[in-house]
Amino acid sequence: MASPSASAESNLDIDYVLVYRFSPQDKNKAISNFQNLVRALADVGLETEVRNGEDSTLLVFVKAADEKIFNEVVYRSRVRDWLHGARQAQPDTGTENVLTKEPLVPAERLRLVYDMITSEPSEGGAGITPKHGVWENVESIFPLHDVRLNKEWMTEWARKTFLSPQDIDSVRDNLGEKIAYYFAFLQTYFYFLIYLAAFGFSCWVLLGYFSMIYAVVNCLWCVVFVEWWKRQEADLAVRWGVRNVSAIQKGRREYQYEKETKDPITGETVKWFPATQRLQRQLLQIPFVILAAIALGTLICTCFGIEIFISEVYNGPLKSVLVFIPTVLLTTLLPTISTFLTRFATRLTEFENYETEDAYEKAMTSKVFVLNFITSYLGIFLTAFVYVPFASVLVPYLDIFSLTVKPFAENEKQMQTPPAYTFTINPDRLRKQVIYFTVTAQILSLALETVVPLITRKGTTKFKEIQSSRAEAKGGAAPPPSANDQPEEKAFLARVRHEATLGDYDVTSDLREMCIQFGYLSLFSAVWPLVPCSFLINNWIELRSDTFKITSECKRPIPQRADSIGPWLDALGFLTWLGSITTAAVVYMFSNDGVGPSGRPSDIKLWALLLSVFASEHIYLLVRLAVRTVISKLDSENMRKERAERYMVRKRYLEETGLSVDKKTRHSLRTSSASSGGGLTKDITRKSLEDEARETTLRESTPVTRFWGRQKGWAEVEQVGVNLIELKLEGSAETKKGR
Amino acid sequence: MASPSASAESNLDIDYVLVYRFSPQDKNKAISNFQNLVRALADVGLETEVRNGEDSTLLVFVKAADEKIFNEVVYRSRVRDWLHGARQAQPDTGTENVLTKEPLVPAERLRLVYDMITSEPSEGGAGITPKHGVWENVESIFPLHDVRLNKEWMTEWARKTFLSPQDIDSVRDNLGEKIAYYFAFLQTYFYFLIYLAAFGFSCWVLLGYFSMIYAVVNCLWCVVFVEWWKRQEADLAVRWGVRNVSAIQKGRREYQYEKETKDPITGETVKWFPATQRLQRQLLQIPFVILAAIALGTLICTCFGIEIFISEVYNGPLKSVLVFIPTVLLTTLLPTISTFLTRFATRLTEFENYETEDAYEKAMTSKVFVLNFITSYLGIFLTAFVYVPFASVLVPYLDIFSLTVKPFAENEKQMQTPPAYTFTINPDRLRKQVIYFTVTAQILSLALETVVPLITRKGTTKFKEIQSSRAEAKGGAAPPPSANDQPEEKAFLARVRHEATLGDYDVTSDLREMCIQFGYLSLFSAVWPLVPCSFLINNWIELRSDTFKITSECKRPIPQRADSIGPWLDALGFLTWLGSITTAAVVYMFSNDGVGPSGRPSDIKLWALLLSVFASEHIYLLVRLAVRTVISKLDSENMRKERAERYMVRKRYLEETGLSVDKKTRHSLRTSSASSGGGLTKDITRKSLEDEARETTLRESTPVTRFWGRQKGWAEVEQVGVNLIELKLEGSAETKKGR
Predict the structure, then answer these.
(1) Nearest to residue A558, comparing CAs of A245, A66, A179?
(2) What are residue A48's phi and psi, to 5 degrees?
(3) Interface confidence (ipTM) of the complex
(4) pLDDT tens for residues B244-276?
(5) B667/A729 Cβ within 8 A
(6) Which secondary structure element, helix H or strand E, spans residue A50, and what is its range?
């Protein structure tokens, strides 16, 4: 039992905290909505407590106290899992001791309580949807952090190189499978990176850049990693008992149906929306992608052009400063356009009107991936496949960018593009760019993700403190929310109020970041073999900083189930495929240290380029097939366990039906039929056979009964057969003699 | 009830006929083995009758007569299906009236009886394995043809253009799903061919050969067809209730395990064979494929070289005769080598030692496909991609083949290869070859399949008759097997004896034939747009001739279940993919009517060829993705039904558990908690709140109980919350005033 002093760290059995924010303008509405909330929670059997919150908020604490009701919820959920195939064994009937037989981990408990709070009343929940409809005053629903566990994670993991499977399990037990999949992915990726980093480093030392050997190993590594992760994913799903949970589709509340029909067979109410209409709406993705490509592409190309113009054509004053123009342009405009396009993508996905959360997420992910693909890789693609082969052709046209430096140039000559034949490309440009994206940008994003929010938050807290102390000085301050707190609850409530101000953690954006990072590796790592080393170091920190983000900078996430990292898996597969093409092209074009096969990039033969790409891609496809086959053959402990469980279920069921024809009944079958036949000892000759037949003809009437009545019982069949054999053998013996 | 005269057509309720062949040398063994057979059948509850057969054979007739036992078999099978997910609804318990509730179609009855005869005693069967171990005397097990239905099929289908879904269902009901899938595939293929044939004919008239428009439509058609068939397959599986039956794996009797271990969890006996060892054995496929490619390739290349030498270099006497040398060589040697390689492939597949029939079949199919791929397409590939681009380079080397015509040539000049620059290729060669393979060879194979066996069989019957009448004339003939027949059974038994002499029908070889045919369409149809027309006509006949083969030239097949056409589906996908490459290459190379882009085939640009291939392949991949997406969105009657059924099962189960928290219990929850709270009417001010708190502190001891004890019941929570809101609003009003 927790001692009274531990109160700030303990969660006091609280499952969820609801932040109720009311508008000071409408007192009656504030009160009646609050009453509705408390009653709705009580209706589904949840116990509540209310405390004061910051500003115009109340904190409603919720716990599933009634054991009988919660047991029923658990049992129902297990039955649903079983019916959808997410669970092998049928749950034992009787709800009294579900929890003692198969205890719940915290994440499962939180998931089920969340379901009680949010699922539709028709499904047995309170139907509370934060910021939506009648529940607009409910600002958020969140569970409380497990402070001790969070501290343990932070301190322990900082000392470790690898997380153990138990660490990942503990993430799953406390934050749910969706986040645990992210950690498992990061961990597997990190583990795989060690080998590639070691190999990449050796290649860098021994073979230099654009090494074919490194390129081949890199591609192979990508294939093996992706295929292995697929298997790992399935394995974890079995380990965590979430296999097939994606089959349990969660309906989207925003889904707008055209009409409600009754299914003619089941009587189920179906919310119908025509698939053709959705297909038409999905076709809007094509103009969207074109729009995004044009918008982002133009920006990136322009900046690229300006940069080349300034760094390689312009040679007037202030060159070292002016060279940053494009970077400034990119860093200011790119996020703006991206944000705009993402918002547009969200709108579009909403317009496509998906029925389930999964379908929505998948559609959204594919759009986000396209946007990220353009912003992340287009620059390098331009350098590798436009600047290098065509620079001498394109450079003369760059003088349109002279406008950007006109105010600084002293004369026209400083901005004159050189004639095509004298221009030489800068072979280091590609490598520098790759290094920028795989080292500098990674460090920057890490900083942006963790350090900046930390500083911002500290700043705001300070600002608020100063503000409130000023107001106090003026004398007219509202009492702080902690004014009414019980002394022993003060520390605890302060923590809750702090957690309520934190943002939500979004695992998808972290996953996206990792996928984009993987893309640099699969697409361009041949340019600079140290890429995996950089990522190795980065990802060690990434995992810890994500842990810090989840535990300290965000509200504790609401546990969600998952049986995969979802649509990002397809993105990984696509990047690996594309990698087989770009790597081959890059290695061919830059073999001989970045200046083409015969020393000059203009000597690139299109047919040789295409042939290397074609060969590389098809080798990739073959290798993928082989790797898949081999990996699918490998067995794992968890898979074995699952098979065993399935076998047990079947065996038990078949034993229960008790239908096996066992030896005893069999023997009795034969003896009874023998005795009914009766002719066992009778000597049956051809004569007696005919007698029997005649007899039968008299007795029976249809051909069928006559046919089957000739020999009665197995013993007679046996006897007749033996006689026939003997007759035949005699006959053949006679024939032989006769000859 | 059947009239006595109908006896030859009726099957007299017989389920199976076993042909028991004994050796005249060992009488005792013949008798004891026969006794064992009859007893084993009686043991599992099968009724038997015995009759005389041809030569040294007996005919053992089997029927599942005991209703109780057969009901149990049916019930057990349904439970097994349900446990493996091949069946949605759990079968009703109680075996008495399984058959009245869900009657069996003939194919299912036959399948189950066959299981009773052949499955292992441990699984409740008689364990009879024809020609194997102790059952070596059992020559064959076969069901009897349904004569009336066969006649109906033959006459009705000959008058129809399309089979109706009911016709396919009737195949399924009588011959099982595996064969029905073949018919459904043939039918779908035929239906799709109509469109392509019409388009191909118009293209032939309007656009000539090597039309890009035709090529694009052809590729698209292939993609749509393959994707549609996948869907159709799934749809039929639902319609026939065989979805997921492939999950019910049938063990192979020939499987050799290294050791038998007990599973530590389930106690199940596992026949263990190391997967790594199998993988090593599978690696032998690589040398096998190389061997096959070399053996078949050398033969085909040699014949190809000789043919070109004779037809295009040699101009001595007998040219018109000598030109057939390669054809004669091919037609004699190719089948020999193929048979040898197939036998080798079978050995190899057996050596790979698969545990299940499915895995074995899959491995065997892939090998057979490779062999067929080489023999069917290599010749055309040589013409298109070796002869056309490189003929002028290679022709001078052809003089090694002058040996073949040396005896006939009058002087050296007649066999002299022309110098490279004067040699012109024969642009019609490719087209002629495609026409040969898609018209002539199809007709030949049709004839070989149906007409030849008919003639052979008629011949043998005649020969036997003549022989026996001669023997009779000599006086020493053994009595004919019909000597002892009951007069009314004579006609019937003659039919059975005839059916016993027929061969087995192998649906795989027919499927293979169709896949290879599809390959010509996807790979080379751009060469000659009339290919689909030829196949359209051919396949109309093919379906009827296959029906004839099944009903008249083979034993009635033993029904097998399937939920797909199996590994051939992959072959179709592969051929479509490859088609996107070859079609692009062929169209590019032969654009401008067979002589390359600028009039001469030597003007083929490698980069342009590679670029067209690369583009075509990736467009194919994109189109396939789009087609898949669209087709997956389409709903069908059967799918809807299946979903409805699944929903019903879930609904029923959840209703049975009766766990939904309904309005009534909910309301009682709230009222009970309100009354226990009791403070509903009490006016709670800040003062009274604190009193309450102090009171609680005295009563309880842990922080948790103290925290949750502050407000008792939902009503008090509501009251406290309302008070807090009021306090806050007052506070903020005061602050405003203060300012």
Answers:
(1) A179
(2) -130, 160
(3) 0.81
(4) 888 887 778 778 888 888 776 666 777 788 878
(5) no
(6) strand A47-52
